[in-house]
Amino acid sequence: MTRALLAKELRQHAFALSFLLLLPFAGLLFISSHGAIQRAGGGGFEAVRWMLYMFLPLACLVLGQLLIASEFRQKTQLFLEGLPLPRWRMLAVKFSLGLVLTLLISSLALGYVAWHARHTEALTQRFVALLLVRSAGWASFTYTLCFAHAFLGRYRVPFGLALVGGLLYCSALGLPIAEFGPFALMDARFAFERFVWPVTALAVTGALVLALTAVGFCLGLVRDATVATLLAEKMSAREKVFLSLLSFGALLVGGEVSEHRKNSTPVQMPGAAEARHGVVQVLASAAVDAPSRDETAALQRTADHVAAELGALADYLGCDSFPPLFIVHRRDLAAGELVYGDLKIEQGVLVRANLTSPGFNAAALDAWLVDDALFRHTNGIARRDSNAWVLDGLVWWWPRSQHGTLSAWSEAVRTARSATEIANFTPARLHGWLAVRKLVGDEEARAFAGSSLAVLAERQGLDAVHRFLSDRFARAQPGDARAWLRDVVRPTSARLRNATGLSEEAFTAEWRTVITTPP
Amino acid sequence: MDTPAPIAPAPVPAVLEVRGLRRHFGKVPAVDGVDLNVHEGQIYGFLGVNGAGKTTTIRILLGIIAAEAGTISLLGETTRRTSVVQKRRIGYVSQEQNFYPWMTGHALGRFVGAFYPTWDAAEFIRLLGVLEVPGDRRVSQLSGGMRAKLALALALAPRPAVLILDEPTAGLDPLARREFMQLIVAQARQHRRTTFFSSHLIDEVERCADCVGIIDQGRMRYEGTLESLRTTVRRVRVADGAVFNPPPDFECWQDEALDGLRLWVLRAPEESWGALALPPGATVEAISLEDAFIACVGSRVVAL
Question: Residue A313 region, left (φ>0) first, then alpha (ψ -120 to 50), else beta?
């Protein structure tokens, strides 16, 4: 009976099973032929660790699908149920076959590398036993997880995605996933640990393996397998909508939680010149061992200037927070050169410049910082295609309007009249601002966008522009789907109408008229 | 010397006896106290509309699902749930043939044969020949009728004591259906094999079965031979306005007014019919299995 079932499974999945067995060895063969096994360290067992960590879960997933899910999907389990065969035995054969194959893959991969390393590594019995136990523990865990997972029928994919997403999310939150049970078995010590048995990790893994096996068998046997049969039915449209909404909700909640728990390392600049203005903090430091007196003065001067300039902007916009600003002085940079510093979005803005160069342009630095700080403050929303014209316009208009107290009308008209784009400008071009930018160039696009704010200020009043810009930039946006959702619900066009009473069509028409009318 | 008294024929033993079988799905009673008596060599037609509880009853008989209450006596062994050992003596043809599509008929025979100690490989090959099923062709390449025949060959090859078929002709065209049922009857008669088949096709049951069981909403409404049905279930026509109340020992299956007449379908022991007092002008007539079936389960439909 068992033999017939085994033969059936092997015959049915012969191609897929052979592929699963051969693929890791093809990979290891490829790696070894390029000497990577030797280079990987740990006598090549590091390569096996990666293979087991990355490949084995996929292999187990495929095994689960082949042995369990496909049976229920094709309803061939009904045929087996009609035979004089206890249901538990049918499941036990499938479970055992999958487990044996999984253990075979991991053990053979280990054996292959051990054979390679036999002359270069001290393969003590204890070391080999440790390797075997760790890999077997991991293999059993991944297989039993996939075994139980395969019974979930139409919920397999959502559950799998939720599981992977959950693990990645926990990892991003800094939870010590890698130190937990089966993951700890496959940690960086795998290829190197020769003496200490991972007792706790093994115990946790063993418990998990038993629990997952029990869950799998329960799902397959409970209520005469009617649960598994029902789960294998196709998903209805209502369920799809429900799961989509659930996923979206989970994303939002996840974003909320991660924002509260986010713990990026603050940037440290010991000995930096510091300046503050309201919510704006500026730190300026020199990338040299001993800055000269001129450099020290330039650092403080720049910090004070930037703090005043951006502090005024933050006050004007009504920002309740602002990304910290870091300026690094570098002697090797050219006068007008500004080099971007790669920080996480919540860490702030870092820019490198030569502050003591005679040709240093403080206005260019201000423009850079306004642009990047508001980009980070809004978590990228300010540079969305449909919003970028406002940010570009603000960067141009802010210094020329003397911090929002003048319309900068005449300069705007003068600048924008040279733009060839204006004659055919429509709201559609506003929504595709990045294309306009590409067409006319960054500086030209900024001046062009700035002219729109100047026109607004002249025609609708400075207060209207103030309201519009505050509405667009004051609120810090979270680093998840909520920012996008808020922007979709209240796009720039709606904010413009709210603040100025103008629709986009009316706004662009007026802008076009003003700019193209001969002086 | 005295002539020996004639020996009374021994009663045919019951091969399958079911008592009080009960099974719910959620709050819905799929099978609600079913009793069955299937005797050796008998062809038993299990009749019911869709959703009456036929398949659930059969799945319980085969031990595929468990009963919540009741007992099953199969081949002299009484259990709550049919065991694997008992199941080895049952041939089963399901409503849908969920065979592995990649297997050929021969491969399927080898696979199924491993589960039956009494499997007769030569008989299987012979049956494939008789039924004209190409054994070297994959199941996926067989028509619905061919698959049903293949299922029958698989069910008969272990030479089972009992053959259970769950609506075996569902989905077959009338010709294939008739041919298939003829094969079953021939097999049953030739090997004196107890055969239990479910169907919602009255003509099929009437043509093939010795004994019929009618199930409705999970409850057995009638069980007996077709002959007994003809003698115990009859229609009474009474002129509208005439006073007629069926006696208490008469079970009323139908009571309706039609064209100035009142029609009653009643069930009672044969001897009770002779003593029935009828109003003037009333008539009693025998009815067909179809009329009896509709009277038995159709009142619910009429009420709609």
Answer: alpha
Give the mean pLDDT of A314-322: 92
Q: Does A2 touch chain B (CB under 8 A)?
A: no
The label of the residue with tokens 């607004």 reads A456
Q: Which domain holds residue A354?
A: 273-377
pLDDT at position B302 is 42
Asked if residue A263 is part of any domain, the answer here is: no
Q: Give domain status of residue A266, yes or no.
A: no
Interface of B with A in 48-87 (CB under 8 A): 62, 64-66, 84-85, 87
* Residue A238 within any structural domain of the chain: no
Contact A84 B116 (CB under 8 A): yes
Render pLDDT for A31-88 as a digit per residue (tens, 0 to 9).
666 655 555 555 678 888 888 888 889 999 999 999 999 998 889 999 999 999 999 9
- Count of CB atoms situated within 10 Å of the CB of A306: 25
Whether pLDDT at A485 is above 70: yes
Domain termination site, one of A377, A395, A425: A377
What single letter denotes the amino acid at residue B269? P
CA-CA distance, B30 to B51, in Å (whole number)?
8
Residues A368 and A389 in one domain: no
Chain A, chain B: beta-carbon pairs less than 8 Å apart: 50
Chain B residues touching residue A4 (CB < 8 angstroms): 111, 114-115
Residue A504 lies in a domain: yes
Contacts of B65 in chain A (CB under 8 A): 224, 226
pTM of the predicted model, to two decimals?
0.68
Which residue is associated with the tokens 């479970």? A95
Looking at residue A475, the DSSP 8-state letter turns out to be S
CB of B97 less than 8 A from some CB of A? yes
Residue with tokens 């076959």: A97
First to last CA, chain B: 70
CA dist., res. B126 & res. B36, Å (int): 33
Q: Are residues A75 and A217 in the same domain?
A: yes
Residue where a domain terminates, one of A315, A343, A377: A377
In terms of domains, do A19 and A140 share one? yes
- pLDDT averaged over every residue in chain A: 87
Q: Rounded to a whole number, what is the distance in angstroms from the first to the last CA of chain A?
A: 97
What residues of chain A, 50 to 89, have a C-beta less than 8 Å from chain B? 74-79, 81-86
Residue A293 near residue A248 (C-beta atoms within 8 A) = no
Q: Do A82 and B92 touch (CB under 8 A)?
A: yes
Whether residue B84 and residue A3 make contact (CB cut-off 8 A), yes or no, is no
For A13, nearest residue in chain B (alpha carbons): B102
